[in-house]
């Protein structure tokens, strides 16, 4: 899927699937990208992937024509600028709590006159070979996703979604549960109530609303869609490996005396 098609799907609230990449070796990204995910997301916020490793992951994903959206450690331009210039197809911004924070992020992601992104030359611009094409199409084609992960953000959701540069919202269930005083309890009524408020605001604003499913299976996907989610991040390399190792341990225990 090309990047403008991903943006179109998010804006039309069509079903979209992605997956987290949290380990740095690009082979993992190649495996995921070769299996028809609509996009890959790089987890730099909770992982140890650095900027150079992120560029390799982006390139591996794009080789299969799968857009790649990193999630930086913070809202700092020290992370956002080099990630975008490395060729990322957009950004997933963590912990967006207010409309003001969102506007500041748009300034970092979009070129003038929409934002204030610095003009430079690196991999994204073909090392100068297609600078003009890139900078003139970026604002229209790039994907920008904001994560809602706190009680404050839920309370501000109508103002946050009132931004024409926002393509989708993604709920962070673990941080949201912690903010609501029930850490780790993703299915607590308080968490579900907050999720529904965000989902309804996204529907009203005409943008996609997503979540992540650590246990990705037909039942969990069906439940998410019935809630009103329109894009789903299908687990991660970390959870896939942990699930396999857990299963292998049980097999070994069955043969040990």
Describe this structure in words.
The protein is of the alpha/beta class. Helix 11 links the parallel strand 7 and strand 8 (231-236). It has twelve helices and eight strands. Helix 2 packs parallel to helix 3 (51-63). The chain has a single domain (3-255), classed as TIM Barrel (Alpha-Beta Barrel). Helix content is 48%, strand content 16%. It is globular, with a radius of gyration of 18 Å.
Q: Determine the number of helices (DSSP H or I, runs of at least 4 residues).
A: 12
Distance from first to last alpha carbon: 51 Å
Low-pLDDT stretches: none
Tell me the total number of β-strands.
8
Mean pLDDT: 96
Helix content estimate: 40-55%
Task: Decide which structural class fits the backbone.
Answer: alpha/beta
- Biggest β-sheet, characterized? 8 strands, parallel
SSE arrangement, N to C: HEHEHEHEHHEHHEHHEHEH
Order of strands, widest sheet: 3-2-1-8-7-6-5-4
Reconstruct the topology from this structure.
Blueprint: H1 3-11, E1 16-21, H2 26-33, E2 39-43, H3 51-63, E3 68-71, H4 77-85, E4 90-93, H5 99-109, H6 131-141, E5 143-148, H7 151-155, H8 157-160, E6 168-171, H9 173-179, H10 189-205, E7 208-213, H11 218-227, E8 231-236, H12 237-255
Parallel strand pairs: 1-2, 1-8, 2-3, 4-5, 5-6, 6-7, 7-8
Helix pairs in contact: 2-3
Using brief descriptors, characterize the structure shown.
single chain; 257 residues; alpha/beta; TIM Barrel; eight-stranded parallel beta sheet
